[in-house]
C-alpha cells in the first residue's frame, strides 16, 4: 500500500496527544485498593438518585428529551437564570468542546494558564486553533496579568480554571473583576468551575454571578465531582443566550441520556445531602493538607477535591511507590502528582506513604 492509498485526516490530529485517564489501582494480594487518580467522588449514589436513574432506564427504547426541560427548569430555579442561558452536554468537557468548535478555528488563539486541565490543549488543537499557555505563578495560581498581556487580535477565547486542576488554588474576586474588565468585549471568557462546591475561601466569586452583566462570559459546571455523577456524563454552561445558542448548534443531538438527566434532577433535589458529603470531603482535605505540611511537604493551597504534590523529578518514583501500596494517583512526570481526596481509609493509606517519603 502506498501513502496515496491511505485514508487522510486533518493534519492538526498529528500532534494531538490522547487524553490520559487516571489509572485504576492494581492489587493482587487481596488488600484494599483505592483510586485517587481521577478526582471522583468516593460516595456511592444516594438511594433516591439511583431510583430516579433506574426508573428512567425503563425508557431506554426512546430517545431522551432533547430539550432536557425538567433539568433546565431545575437549574434555572437553582441559579435564578433564564432557561435560554443554559446548555447541557455529556460532561462539561463536552460543553467546552462544543464551545471551542463554535468559537475558533485555524489561525485563532486560545489563552489559558499552564499547567491546568489536560483536556484544554486537546480541545483547542482539535479546532485547528493555537494554544497560548501562560505559566502559573510560583504558588501554582493563575497569573491573570500575564494572561491579559497574552491576548492578541487573534485571541478568540480565554479559559480560567478555578479552582485550578491539577494544582488547587482559586482566582479571587478582585483580580477576576479587574481581568474581566480588561479583556476585550469580543473575546469569550470561559470560567471553568468544575470544583466550585468544594471552595471554602470567602474571596472567591460565584462565577454564575459574574456572567450576568457580561455577555462575553460563560461559566462551566459539572455533576461529575461534587454530585457524584461522573459515570453518567452530564455538565452544563451558564452564559448569555447568543453564546448558549452557539453551543447548542455544535452539540450532538440527543447526547445526554434520559438516565443522566433524571439523575441530575434528583441530585438537585437532594442537594443538601450531597453538599453535606462535599463538606465531609472538605474536612478530609483540611486534614490531609495539614498532615502533609506537618511532614514537610510544600503543597499549594487547595480548594478542590485534590491536592498537588510538587515532586519534580521524583514524580514517577512516588507514583510507583503509592501504586505498590494499592493507591493510584495522577502523575505529571517531571512536575508533580495530583492526589484526589477520597474516603478516609484511602487518605490514611496515602498519608502513611507520603509522610514516610519525606523521612
Ligand atoms: C472534571 C473536570 C471537568 C468536568 O468534567 P466532566 O466530567 O466532563 O463534566 C471540567 N473541568 C475541569 C477542570 C475538571 O477537572
From TrEMBL:
<comment type="function">
    <text>Aminotransferase that catalyzes the conversion of aromatic amino acids and 2-oxoglutarate into corresponding aromatic oxo acids and L-glutamate.</text>
</comment>
<feature type="modified residue" description="N6-(pyridoxal phosphate)lysine">
    <location>
        <position position="225"/>
    </location>
</feature>
<dbReference type="InterPro" id="IPR001917">
    <property type="entry name" value="Aminotrans_II_pyridoxalP_BS"/>
</dbReference>
<keyword id="KW-0032">Aminotransferase</keyword>
<comment type="similarity">
    <text>Belongs to the class-II pyridoxal-phosphate-dependent aminotransferase family.</text>
</comment>
<keyword id="KW-0663">Pyridoxal phosphate</keyword>
<dbReference type="InterPro" id="IPR004839">
    <property type="entry name" value="Aminotransferase_I/II_large"/>
</dbReference>
<dbReference type="InterPro" id="IPR050106">
    <property type="entry name" value="HistidinolP_aminotransfase"/>
</dbReference>
<dbReference type="InterPro" id="IPR024892">
    <property type="entry name" value="ArAT"/>
</dbReference>
<dbReference type="InterPro" id="IPR015421">
    <property type="entry name" value="PyrdxlP-dep_Trfase_major"/>
</dbReference>
<comment type="subunit">
    <text>Homodimer.</text>
</comment>
<dbReference type="Pfam" id="PF00155">
    <property type="entry name" value="Aminotran_1_2"/>
</dbReference>
<dbReference type="InterPro" id="IPR015424">
    <property type="entry name" value="PyrdxlP-dep_Trfase"/>
</dbReference>
<feature type="compositionally biased region" description="Basic and acidic residues">
    <location>
        <begin position="23"/>
        <end position="32"/>
    </location>
</feature>
<feature type="domain" description="Aminotransferase class I/classII large">
    <location>
        <begin position="34"/>
        <end position="341"/>
    </location>
</feature>
<dbReference type="InterPro" id="IPR015422">
    <property type="entry name" value="PyrdxlP-dep_Trfase_small"/>
</dbReference>
<keyword id="KW-0808">Transferase</keyword>
<feature type="region of interest" description="Disordered">
    <location>
        <begin position="18"/>
        <end position="41"/>
    </location>
</feature>
<dbReference type="InterPro" id="IPR005861">
    <property type="entry name" value="HisP_aminotrans"/>
</dbReference>
<protein>
    <recommendedName>
        <fullName>Aromatic amino acid aminotransferase</fullName>
        <ecNumber>2.6.1.57</ecNumber>
    </recommendedName>
</protein>
